[in-house]
Design goal:
One of its GO terms (molecular function) is beta-tubulin binding. Its main location: cytoplasm. InterPro entries: TBCA, TBCA_sf. This is Tubulin-specific chaperone A. It is built from three helices and no strands. The chain is mostly helical and about 110 residues long. The model has no long low-confidence stretch (mean pLDDT about 90). Helix 1 runs antiparallel to helix 2, helix 1 packs parallel to helix 3 and helix 2 packs across helix 3. The chain is rod-shaped and about 65 Å long. The longest helix has about 45 residues. The protein has one domain: Methane Monooxygenase Hydroxylase, Chain G, domain 1.
Length: about 110
């Protein structure tokens, strides 16, 4: 029974990590879109070149975070997949296993191979 609790806890934690990283990625992708629109508007308005350069740096930092999030998401996916394979038999029929499998099925098509 103790092993089952440990297995359920491991699945729940790894599923939570995967969910959080997915949300972060979505947030950064939205931020890049917003910052790009803001930069284009600043250029169209003929704003001060220094302000445009600063906005371009903000956009660059957000873009950089997308790559970081994608690598963390891939790592979280692999960790969760390993946990499902390891603990799946111990947790058969549990809510945690169902949630873990569902998020794996949602994320797998979005990962770059």
């Amino acid at each position: 029974m103790a092993d089952n609790k440990e297995a359920l806890r491991a699945l729940k934690i790894k599923t939570g990590v995967m969910t959080r990283v997915r949300k972060e990625l979505a947030m950064y992708e939205q931020e890049v879109k917003t910052e790009t629109e803001k930069l284009e508007a600043m250029k169209a308005e003929g704003r001060d070149p220094h302000d445009v350069k600063q906005q371009d740096q903000v956009l660059g930092e957000s873009t950089m975070m997308i790559g970081d999030c994608k690598s963390r998401m891939e790592s979280a996916f692999n960790d969760l997949l390993a946990a499902v394979e390891e603990h799946g038999p111990d947790c058969e029929g549990s809510e945690e296993l169902t949630a873990a499998k569902a998020i794996l099925d949602e994320v797998e098509p979005t990962l770059e191979v």
